């Protein structure tokens, strides 16, 4: 792991996305996630594409996203 990079922040991003979906801001949330992911500001175990795909799936399955 890069010494400048801290542990994964994907869990925090997922929680924020769920909150945004609850208040009807899903589109903006995923545009923000995409932008931050592409710039390397979201990091963790999963690749950028896998993280976004699994997050969308989780949010749909749990009722946050329709």
In summary, what is this structure?
The protein is an all-alpha fold and 66 residues long.
How would you portray this structure in words?
About 60% of the residues lie in helices and about 0% in strands. By secondary structure, the chain is an all-alpha fold. The protein has one domain. Helix 1 runs antiparallel to helix 2 (about 25-40). The longest helix has 14 residues, at about 50-60. The radius of gyration is 12 Å and the shape is globular. The N and C termini lie far apart (about 35 Å).
Our measurement of the CA-to-CA distance between the termini, rounded to an integer number of angstroms, reads 36 Å
Low-confidence stretches: none
**Major sheet characteristics:** none
Order of helices and strands: HHH
Summarize the amount of helix as a percent range: 55-70%
Mean pLDDT metric: 91
Radius of gyration: 12 Å
Number of helices: 3
Number of strands: 0
Number of individual domains: 1
- What general form does the structure show? globular
Strand content: under 5%
Secondary structure category:
mainly alpha
What tags apply to this protein structure?
mainly alpha; single chain; 61% helix; 66 residues
């Amino acid at each position: 792991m890069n010494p400048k990079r801290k542990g994964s922040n994907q869990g925090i991003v997922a929680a924020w996305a769920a909150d945004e979906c609850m208040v009807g801001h899903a589109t903006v949330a995923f545009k923000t996630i995409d932008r931050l992911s592409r710039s390397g500001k979201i990091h963790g175990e999963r690749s950028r594409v896998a993280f976004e795909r699994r997050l969308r799936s989780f949010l749909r399955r749990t009722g946050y996203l329709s």
